[in-house]
Each structure stands twice: as C-alpha cells, then as structure tokens.
Amino acid sequence: MGTPEFPNLGKHCTVEDCKQIDFLPFTCDRCSQVFCLEHRSYIKHGCPKADKKDVTVVICPLCAKGVRLIPDEDPNITWDTHVNTDCDPSNYERATKKKKCPVPGCKEILTFSNTLKCRDCLVDHCLKHRFGLDHKCPGPKKPEAGFQFMGLLNRNRKEERKSNRAPATSSTNWTSSFLNAASSVRASAEASMTKLGNEISQKLQFSRDGLSQSSSSGSRNGHVEECPQCGATFSSVTTLVEHVEKVHEKGGNRAGGKKVTIDACPKCSRGFHDPVALVEHVEKDHGGSSRGR
C-alpha cells in the first residue's frame, strides 16, 4: 500500500468483497469505517448505526404539529409523551385552515405572493382588494383622547387579571409603568408651567412699558389737568376737552345743566374754565404775551 516515497498513502475499503485501495477514502460518520467512493453511503456498506442519525417526523392528527421519532426509542413512548405534554387540539384549525381575503364574497386564498397589508387598517388583503376603496377601509385608528393615566390603569388591570399565576411580576411591571407615566406627565407639566410663566412675564413687562410711556408722555409739561365738574385728572388739555364734551356736555344737556367751556393757554396748553384766570396766568407766567410760540 502506498509508494516508497509515501508509504501511508491510501487505504483499503472495509467491505470484504471490495478491499479496493483508495487514495481519497471516505470515513463514515456513524461507524467510523473507511470506504471507497462506491461504498461510502449508509445503504451501500450496510451501516449498523445509520438509524441514529435518521430524522423521521410524524404529523399529529390532533394538533397538526410535527413529532420527531427519537432513534433507539419506541415510537409509542414518543407518541404518548407528545400527547401528554405538547399536544393542543385547538391548534389544528389554525394550522390547517387556509387564510382567505376578509372582503365579503372574496374566496381568494392568501399566499406569500398575493398578500398585501393595508397601511391604514393593517389587515391582509388579496391583490384585487388591496386599495382602501375596494375593501372599505375604516382608516387608521384614532389615538385615545382620554387621560393617559386611565388608559394605563385599565391596561394594567387587564394584564393583572390574565396573569394571576405570577402576581409579583405583574405588580412590579405595573409599578414601573406607573412611575414612567408619572415622570413623563411631571416633565410635561413643568414645561407647560415654564412656558406659561415666560408668557406672563412678557405680558407684564409689555404692560409696564406701555404705562411708563403713557405716563412720561402725559407728564412731559409737568401739569395735570383736572375736570372742574367731576374732579377727574388728565395728562393733557385735549383729553380733558374730550372728556367734558362727551360726558358733561351731553349729560348736562339731557339734565338741563350748564355747559362748561375750557380755554387753553397758547403757551403751555394748560386749560382754564374761567377766561379771567387764563389772562392772569398768561400775564404772570408768560410775561403778558398771549401769542403762541
């Protein structure tokens, strides 16, 4: 076997009737024997351990699940184990029933190549009814407008009822969810209060600026005009005249009262209801000249 240069080159086939030398022999992965190209398969060399790698699956007629038969084990034992542990008869209808298009009157069976999911209602339809108008799509689901705490509490209550077998885990999940929701609401409330405070500060500043401007413009001459009838004060003669004409003249005419006339100083625009007082003011404060500047 081999050559003088490579004495270990090649091996003989293990089959008694063959014994052929092969320079690229095959080793069986089950019985670990060496075989030639012709006898390399399990059937050709009659491998006694070939069934250990065999995979046989039987479909259960009760639940439509595959049951693998374990080598070196009685199939009846394997079947009894499946029936007592994994068998679920309610799965038979889901596994064997073919999914059809939900549109009334359509009998198209949905497969991998003819199924499209609507982007609005998220329901699978056939190619013929893939558009919203064809399957009367109700549109996307509207978000819940209620208080998010109520939705969270209701959802957690439902989960707690379903998972009564693990009360500790459900209570922990409920607590963590509640804390997360509370922190998010607190953050949003703080942001809203900050925004509201900024807006109120801006409004107050704007009001103060407006009052300061009006007060400065009204008192630029250093005089405050007073109504001779009601005692109201005004920053200028013009506003005093408008007040008298709107309030006291109309009210006096209706009630039969006396009409009041306001005379303004041509120098400083100060108002006087008595012409004599106006003349004395001009002679005393403006040097006796009644001409305007």
Short description:
With 293 residues, the chain is mainly alpha-helical.
Description:
This protein is mainly alpha-helical and 293 residues long. 40% of the residues lie in helices and 10% in strands. It contains seven helices and twelve strands. The strands form six sheets. A two-stranded antiparallel sheet has the order 1-2. A two-stranded antiparallel ribbon has the order 3-4. α4 runs antiparallel to α5. It is elongated, with a radius of gyration of 51 Å.
What integer is the average pLDDT?
Answer: 76
Helicity range = 40-55%
Distance between termini? Answer: 139 Å
Report the total helices.
Answer: 7
Tally the beta strands. Answer: 12
Major beta sheet, strand line-up: 1-2
Spans with pLDDT under 50 lasting ≥5 residues?
211-221, 252-257
- The shape, in one word, is elongated
How big a fraction of the residues is strand? 5-15%
The radius of gyration over CA amounts to: 51 Å
Largest sheet: 2 strands, antiparallel
Structural class: mainly alpha
State the order of secondary-structure elements, H for helix, E for strand: EEEEHEEHHEEHHEEHEEH
